[in-house]
Structure formats: C-alpha cells, structure tokens
Design a protein that fits this description.
With 443 residues, the chain is an alpha/beta fold. The chain has helices at residues 8-13, 33-40, 49-65, 82-90, 100-108, 125-134, 144-157, 195-204, 224-243, 269-280, 293-296, 331-335, 346-349, 436-442; strands at residues 18-21, 25-28, 31-32, 44-48, 70-75, 94-97, 116-118, 138-141, 161-168, 190-191, 208-214, 250-252, 286-289, 300-310, 318-322, 341-343, 354-359, 368-375, 383-386, 407-412, 415-420. The protein starts with 7 loop residues before the first helix and ends with a helix. The relative contact order is 0.16. InterPro entries: Ala_racemase/Decarboxylase_C, DAP_deCOOHase_LysA, De-COase2_C, De-COase2_CS, De-COase2_N, Orn/DAP/Arg_de-COase, PLP-binding_barrel.
C-alpha cells in the first residue's frame, strides 16, 4: 500500500528553521522568502547559516554524550560554497575533499591543511602533488596502484604522505543503488581480503606512513545496522593488523547518515555515535567522521516560480511548470529523489490539496520534481520552496539547455545577503571560440 505524502504544513512542523507567518508567508531563519524571490528572482538557492551551525552542534553533542572524541571533516561534495565552508570552519570542522578543486576551496576559506582529508577514487598526479606540497593531514588511498604512485610522487618532492587505506567492507548499506559505495562490486575502496597485505606493503614503501583505515559505505543510510556491520569488520581488521605488529592509529568512519526528506524514520546522530562506540570505542584509535548531507541538506531551499499551469483531463493531475529544472536540482531526475514543496503564500498554504505533477522547463521527460503530489491549487506567478536542497543541490547544477546558474543567498537571524549573483546569459559562451576557417567559410 502506497503511503500518503505529507502535506506542506506537516513538512514545516518537522523543520524548525522554516515557519509560515500569516502576514509575511514562508520564513527561513526569520527571513521572508518572498523578499528574496522578489529581489533576486527565481530560481534561487537559499542557505541557512544558523541551520548549518545547529546541525554541527547537534552532531558534536551526540558524540560527546557517547564519550567519543571525534574529528569532524565536512564532506565538501555536498555543498562547497565558500560561505557554507566559512560557517563550518568557524564551527570547528575540517574538510573531506575529493578533488584538487575542492582542496583549493578548503584552503581558500582558511581550513588548515592538517584538518583536510583527501578522499576519492581517481586522484591525478597533479592533485596528489598539490596535496603533498600543502601538507594535508591524510590521504585516503583507494587502490594498490594509487599507493605505489603516491609513494613515487612523494619521493620526487622529498615529502612524506600520511595515508589511510580505504577498505571496502562488502556491506549492503540499504540505500539507493547509485549512492551505495561499500559493496564488493562498487568502484570504491580496497577489496576486503586484499587490504591487510596492502597495509603491510604501505609500511615498507618509502615516503609513505600508513596511519590507519578509512571506510564509507554510502549515503542517506536510515538504519544504524549497516554502520555497525561495517565498523565491526574494520575493528576486526585493526586487531588483526596490530597482532601482525603493525601500527593503526586512526579509523576514519566516513559519513552517510540519512535525513528525513519525506516521512522517513531517519536515525538521530546518537545512533551513529552508538554504532561507533559499540564497535570501535575500545580500540584506542583516533576517530573521525565525514558528514555532508546530514549537515547541509536541511540548511537549503530552492525557490521557484510557477510559469504555467498546464491543464489535463479531470482524472489526470495538472502539470505545474516551474522555472526551476533538472539542470538546477538534478536529484529527482538522477535518483527519483523526493523533496517537499511548500508555497510561500500563507493563503495558498491553507487551501485544500489536490494532486499536481510539478515539472521543469528542460526538454527532457525526466525533468519532474514531483508526480501527483498533493498541493494547494497553484497558479501562474506563485512561488514555492523546494525543501532540503542544501546538499547535492546547487553544487550539481549545470547550464543544460543554455540555462544560467541560479542566484544564491544566505540567511541568518532575520538578515540575508546575496552570496552568488545569477549567472549572466553572456557568460554561457564567454569562453567559447570559433575556428578561423569557419569564419573564412562564412565571409
């Protein structure tokens, strides 16, 4: 039996940063979103700095309550805007980066190199050299080939690389297939049975110091059981390596804790802390986690305006055509992801709900934000907020269909500021050139 979708007001009840004011409409951290839609236009991304702070502090409190001293490395792939990174740096977060570009961004906002972990399955020679020169705290090695290459690169620079082996524990995370990363068939990490021998090889290689193990089994995980299974396997490996005379000082537990998008029973951070305490708490290792979505997703909304209402026969939901599309928010098209949709108007939010299908203007059939979603009867010109888009939202945007990147704003304590202007249309082709022979052919 298909469970009913939560209505807009129920969605707001579980999101403390958002509230519907009877006069000003939908507020995000006490800023009327109608003002941002009016002044910046739509589509427009909005990030709540206060929400970012609260999420980090709640996460830290959960681990402190469990008696765990854990390093926090924010997974930048979720949302890498400089303003977001600045807030999280001020809250004591380091960074988990997966490219040279992300490493540059982390350094630009003042995150110390020794607070940066460099992960990722395909680090180039240039990226590894840059990381070594900057002195990043840890490089999570994903393969035997990368380990040997890193040793040689470090030798040419006269540097020493602190490495953790990212092991693949072959654990099913119980999440979407496209965001599972810890199964035997996934491209990530070192096969479980190969990791011990490779750890010993790392101990013998020049210019490399193996400091521990890393693991990450996926994203949007809604049960502590997969975490316990993965960390239990890592704990067994730590004990086996130590019994073999090898030093293991760090366990990097990755991220993946899920959030409530629709009506999921998402585990609290105390569940993750408990899984780590239960499996790794007695190993006398330095612990680290790499939260991304859990911190950033609830801290963002995407504002969009209704371009048209395309009427359908009586038994078919009308199409609500927004000015935001899959090039802005890719997750529904990529993963069939569910995002709450709430009108900004207080009057509209009180109206009876009818099923409506919310789509974007991109020329793809997959450009659908919601199918037969119970919503107030929306009209041309109405503005809606698409919820929980702070992670894997703006950072995955493209300019497909020659659509400029949307504006971005940050809010906190009733104040707001533009943090990225809307991309000018001319910028879409500013770097393009036409070969000279084509100019001659048309002369």
């Amino acid at each position: 039996m298909t469970r009913p979708d939560p209505d807009p007001l129920h969605l707001l009840a579980s999101r403390p940063s958002l509230r519907m004011d009877v006069h000003s409409g939908l507020l995000f951290e006490d800023v009327p979103l109608q003002i941002l839609a009016r002044d910046l236009g739509t589509p427009c991304w909005v990030t709540g700095a206060g929400t970012l702070r609260r999420r980090v502090r709640n996460l830290r409190s959960a681990f402190e309550a469990a008696g765990l001293d854990v390093g926090f490395h924010y997974a930048m792939k979720a949302n890498d805007h400089l303003a977001t990174l600045s807030v999280l740096r001020a809250e004591g977060c380091g960074a988990d980066v997966v490219s040279g570009g992300e490493l540059h961004r982390a350094l630009t906002v003042g995150i110390r190199p020794d607070r940066i972990v460099f992960s990722g399955v395909g680090k180039t020679d240039a990226e590894l050299k840059f990381a070594l020169v900057q002195g990043v705290g840890q490089i999570n090695v994903e393969s035997a080939e990368e380990l040997v290459r890193l040793s040689a690169l470090a030798g040419t620079l006269g540097a020493t690389a602190r490495v953790a082996l990212r092991v693949n524990p072959d654990v099913e995370a119980g999440t979407h297939d496209k965001i599972s990363t810890g199964r035997a068939g996934d491209k990530f990490g070192i096969a479980w049975h190969e990791a011990p021998a490779l750890y010993r090889q790392a101990s013998d290689l020049p210019n490399v110091i193996p400091v521990g193990l890393a693991v990450h089994i996926g994203s949007q995980i809604l049960s502590p059981a997969p975490f316990r299974a993965a960390y239990g396997r890592v704990a067994d490996m730590v004990r086996a390596l130590r019994a073999d005379g090898l030093h293991v000082d760090i366990v990097d537990c990755g991220g993946g804790l899920g959030i409530r998008y629709r009506d999921e029973l998402a585990p609290p951070p105390s569940a993750l802390a408990g899984a780590i305490q239960e499996t790794l708490g007695d190993l006398d290792v330095a612990l680290a986690i790499e939260p991304g979505r859990w911190i950033a997703a609830p801290a963002g909304v995407l504002l969009a305006s209704v371009i048209d209402v395309k009427k359908q026969p009586d038994d078919v939901p009308d199409f609500i055509v927004l000015d935001a599309a899959m090039n802005d928010l890719a997750r529904p098209a990529l993963y069939d992801s569910w995002h709450g949709i709430v009108p900004l108007s207080p009057e509209r939010a009180q109206e009876d709900l009818i099923p409506q299908t919310v789509v974007g203007p991109v020329c793809e059939s997959s450009d659908i934000m919601a199918t037969a979603r119970p919503l107030p009867p929306l009209q041309r010109g109405d503005v809606v907020a698409i919820l929980d888009t702070g992670a894997y939202g703006a950072v995955m945007s493209s300019t497909y269909n020659a659509r400029p990147l949307a504006a971005q704003a940050m809010v906190e304590h009733g104040q707001w500021q533009t943090i990225k202007a809307r991309q000018p249309i001319e910028a879409l082709w500013a770097g393009e050139t036409i070969p000279e022979w084509l100019d001659r052919e048309t002369a």
